[in-house]
């Protein structure tokens, strides 16, 4: 009798299937794998959000975001704070993400924040994070070597391109305390529910 695969085995298999799919897509479309990842991520993003930018929206938003993982990989959460261009807080996000690495949680928190900003009709977005790796990868300074991060990077890039202006900035952990607290709160609340 075959054993049921673990979540880790399923996740690993999914990453491999995605990698092969993108490789085949690039081969048959005559494009690079990076462009194929971007096309897949953009389509996924539109399907997930189901929203288009609001007509005539010119709003500028500022987001502070953070991902947390206890165990790396371990239980993970996303946190984000959204502000309008004048600094008024518009809302907070605290979302449990399941088990993943810290870097994956960082990307997931960015994706969640980008989706929220897009659904609010923002055209200009400034994003702040204490993850230097994510910042430098999004800026194109560092390559994304991890196969587990590539689909998340492509999805974040696709979402960022939906804004007229997008800028991401690296800040200190001290400056990102609220987003970190929201990410950790999501993990804490999920842990309480599991008991």
How many runs of DSSP E, i.e. beta strands? 5
Helix content: 40-55%
How much of the residues is beta strand, in percent?
A: 15-25%
Show unreliable segments.
49-58
Please tell me the overall pLDDT.
84
List the secondary-structure elements in sequence, H or E.
HHEEEHEHHEH
Measured on Cα atoms, how large is the radius of gyration?
A: 17 Å
The name of the CATH architecture is 2-Layer Sandwich
In what order do the strands lie side by side in the largest sheet? 3-2-1-4-5
CATH overall fold name? Nucleotidyltransferase, domain 5
Largest sheet: 5 strands, mixed
Which CATH top level class fits? Alpha Beta
**Strand pairing plus helix content: what structural class?**
alpha/beta
> Outline, from the CA principal axes?
globular
**Total domains:** 1
Q: Distance N terminus to C terminus?
A: 32 Å
H/I helix tally: 6
Say which CATH homologous superfamily is assigned.
Ribonuclease H-like superfamily/Ribonuclease H
């Amino acid at each position: 009798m075959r054993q049921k695969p673990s979540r880790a085995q399923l996740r690993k298999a999914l990453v491999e299937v995605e990698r092969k799919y993108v490789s085949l897509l690039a081969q048959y479309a005559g494009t690079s794998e990076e462009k194929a990842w971007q096309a897949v991520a953009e389509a996924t993003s539109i399907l997930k959000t189901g929203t288009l930018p609001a007509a005539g929206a010119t709003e500028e938003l500022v987001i502070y975001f953070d991902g947390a993982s206890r165990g790396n990989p371990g239980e993970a959460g996303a946190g984000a704070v959204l502000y309008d261009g004048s600094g008024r807080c518009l809302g907070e996000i605290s979302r449990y993400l399941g088990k993943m690495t810290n870097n994956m949680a960082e990307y997931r928190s960015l994706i969640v924040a980008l989706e929220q900003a897009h659904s609010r009709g923002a055209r200009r977005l400034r994003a702040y994070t204490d993850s230097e790796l994510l910042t430098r990868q999004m800026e194109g300074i560092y390559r994304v070597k991890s196969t587990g991060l590539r689909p998340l990077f492509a999805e974040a890039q696709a979402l960022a391109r939906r804004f007229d202006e997008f800028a991401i900035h690296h800040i200190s952990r001290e400056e990102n305390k609220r987003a970190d607290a929201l990410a950790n709160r999501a993990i804490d609340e999920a842990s309480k529910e599991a008991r």
